Structure formats: structure tokens, C-alpha cells
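Exercise 7.
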Amino acid sequence: MRPEEGELTFHTRVNEGGQCLFLSTSSGGIYLIDEDRSAPKNSPYMNRYGETFNKTSKRWDNYFLDSENGGLQ
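Solution. The predicted structure, written as C-alpha cells, is:
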């Protein structure tokens, strides 16, 4: 690993050709990685009230993929 390189960036550089998209199953967030740049995004999952999934959410089964805007805000 390079100095100050995170695990996702390292994995992307070594195994994925420098570009990758990760979905965190614990937080529901998305991480877009391109070479040395990364961009965290909100969860693409929303409940019927328009709230996105986060670490304090108790259950996954109340959330559905936001198809209106692809989930990326």
C-alpha cells in the first residue's frame, strides 16, 4: 500500500484496473473510486418517506432502490 492510501483505493488499484464502485453493506453508502480520487455518495435505498438508509436504520426490508434518480444524489 502507498502512504495514506485506503483499503478500497488499494484494492481498486491492484485488482480492478483503477476504477471501481463499492456498496457498503453496513452503511448502505456507495464509494466511487477512480485512480487516486474517491467520492462517497448517499445510499441508493430509500423508504416510503424519502429517507435514505444509514447506520441508525434498524431494518433493511423497509428500503427500496430509488429508481427515480438512480439513487445517486
